[in-house]
Amino acid sequence: MAEPGVTASQLLTSPERIAAILTFLDETNRLKDTLRSGHTPEGRRESTAEHSWRLCLLAILLGKELEDIDLLRLVKICIVHDLGEAISGDVPATEQRAGDDRPARERADLLTLCAHLPEDLKAEVIMLWDEYAEARTPEAVIAKGLDKIETMLTHTTGDNPADFDYRFNLAYGVEATDRHPLLAAIRAHVDARTSNLASEADR
User: Fold this and answer.
1) CA 145/CA 186 separation, integer angstroms
2) Residue 88 — very low, low, confident or very high, per pLDDT cuts 50/70/90?
3) How far apart are CA 28 and CA 87, in angstroms?
4) Which sign does the torsion angle of CA 91, 96, 102, 106 carry?
5) What is the pLDDT of residues 127-175, one digit of tens each?
6) Quick one: three-class SS letters along the chain?
7) CB neighbours of 136 closer than 8 A, spacing ≥ 6?
8) What's the confidence (pLDDT) of residue 90?
9) Measured CA distances, 18 to 31, 47, 67, 118 (Å)
10) Per-residue pLDDT tens digits for 46-67
């Protein structure tokens, strides 16, 4: 929303506003170099930016099945949910523990990233991140579930190390994927893939 007496077009053409947005983009560009534990089909470690991109693509592809979901809001949540990792990096799924300080640290890093954004954009990004973290809306519930599913899909399609534990997938993120029938249905397919890969790895 434009400030009193200022039109939307004037806001968009403000040199200060443009500079602030570009500074934020420069800082978040670090996500391209923030590596995760998952591997690509060619065997290199994926980046957080790549994970977020495919998470958004997954959300878009499921849009018609999510009739009561605000798709634009869902995609926005998916885009911002890992922005804090641009500073402190990713904690591998296998090392995440309930009660650790990861959420608080990521939120603090997000605030640092947003420091130079115009107040309206800063408020929106932080609100979307908090919505995801607390899973307090239907869109956030779907985003959290799809986040787990995208990670699991990466584990089943990557060129993984020889000692990769495929069975980790079977217990990963169950609470998040049990919160919506579509999430549970997709998970069933991914679990079947995982079980097949685990059986092959045991041979």
Assistant:
1) 10
2) confident
3) 9
4) positive
5) 999 999 999 999 999 999 999 999 999 999 999 998 999 999 999 999 9
6) CCCCCCCHHHHHHCHHHHHHHHHHHHHHHHHHCCEEEEECCCCCEEEHHHHHHHHHHHHHHCHHHCCCCCHHHHHHHHHHCCCCHHHHCCCCHHHCCCCCCHHHHHHHHHHHHCCCCCHHHHHHHHHHHHHHHHCCCHHHHHHHHHHHHHHHHHHHHCCCCCCCCCCHHHHCCHHHHCCCHHHHHHHHHHHHHHHHHHHHHHC
7) none
8) 83
9) 21, 27, 35, 9
10) 999 999 999 999 999 999 999 8
Q: What is the residue type of 165?
A: D
